[in-house]
Write a structure and sequence with these properties.
Keywords: Signal. The chain is α+β, with helices and mostly antiparallel strands and 193 residues long. It has three helices and 13 strands. Strands 2, 3, 5, 7, 8, 9, 11 and 13 form an eight-stranded mixed β-sheet that branches. Strands 1-6-12 form a three-stranded antiparallel β-sheet, with no helix packed on it. 21% of the residues are buried.
């Protein structure tokens, strides 16, 4: 009698085992597929194997978080930047990529387009990036973008941003600065095709 009951449980155990195996393989079903469908996919850039694993690609839009692991977000963007691909990098304890210029070949352009460097030039009423630095940037074919770029910020810090743009070609992205030594200033990158 006990053997008969045990045999009747086998189909249930096999079904349960199959379900667990599928879940372990990462097939979470329709809910996961729906979530993946909402994930932003860039049509202009992709991360290379040289990019840190904590970099993300997000749509540049009002309300989008500008740094991973932080709650600061875009409050205003020039129209020409909206809809581009934001390279969301960490800042602070987990990593401080946001204070570094873009490392060469960490991204690849899928087609010709434009890169925008959004530079935190003033914070807490202190100018961090001066006129000389911006002049050097302009000598390297970076053009200032017209229109306001604003983000949220910690109380009392009053972050001020300037956006600059430069054309990029399809292939590995190299934005190496020749005349300007990057001084640990905050910088966001947005790409648009």
């Amino acid at each position: 009698m006990v053997i008969m009951r045990g045999l009747r449980l086998w189909p249930t155990l096999l079904t349960l085992s199959a379900f667990i195996a599928l879940a372990v393989q990462g097939n979470a079903g329709p809910a996961q597929e729906k979530k993946d469908a909402k994930r932003f996919r860039s049509s202009i850039i992709d991360l290379t194997d040289k990019a840190p694993s904590d970099w993300l690609l997000k749509e540049a839009k009002i309300g989008e978080q500008i740094l991973s692991g932080r709650d600061y977000e875009f409050a205003e963007l020039p129209d020409e930047i909206k809809g581009g691909t934001l390279l969301q990098r960490p800042a602070g304890a987990g990593g401080d990529d946001y204070h570094q210029w873009l490392p060469n070949k960490s991204l690849t352009a899928l087609k010709d387009g434009t890169v925008y460097a959004i530079i935190l030039w003033k914070c807490m009423d202190k100018e961090m990036v001066d006129e000389v630095a911006f002049t050097k940037l302009e000598r390297e074919d970076w053009k200032e973008v017209k229109g306001a770029t604003e983000t949220t910020f910690p109380n009392g810090e009053d972050w001020r941003w300037k956006a600059y743009k430069k054309n990029i070609k399809k292939g590995d992205i190299i934005l190496q600065l020749k005349a300007l030594k990057w001084g640990k200033w905050g910088v966001l990158f947005v790409f648009k095709g």
